[in-house]
Design a protein that fits this description.
This protein is mainly alpha-helical and about 70 residues long. The protein contains 2 helices and no strands. The protein has one domain (about 1-65): Cytochrome C Oxidase, Chain L (Irregular). The longest helix has 28 residues, at about 40-65.
Amino acid sequence: MALGRMIIARRRFSTSLIRLGEHYPEGPGSNLPFKIQNKWRLLATMTLFFGSGLTAPFLLVRHQLKKK
């Protein structure tokens, strides 16, 4: 019984330390690597990011077919 209590106490102590160590700003989007406040900038960023991944294979195939 004493061993079980020690394990629970240790687990609670370690999670409380982790919780105390977090100093992140609050609010939605604060943990993202890009800004989400301006919806038009977000739209342009997402279009470029996903569009480049979608068009890259087609451009590479076109390049290979154009080579002699």
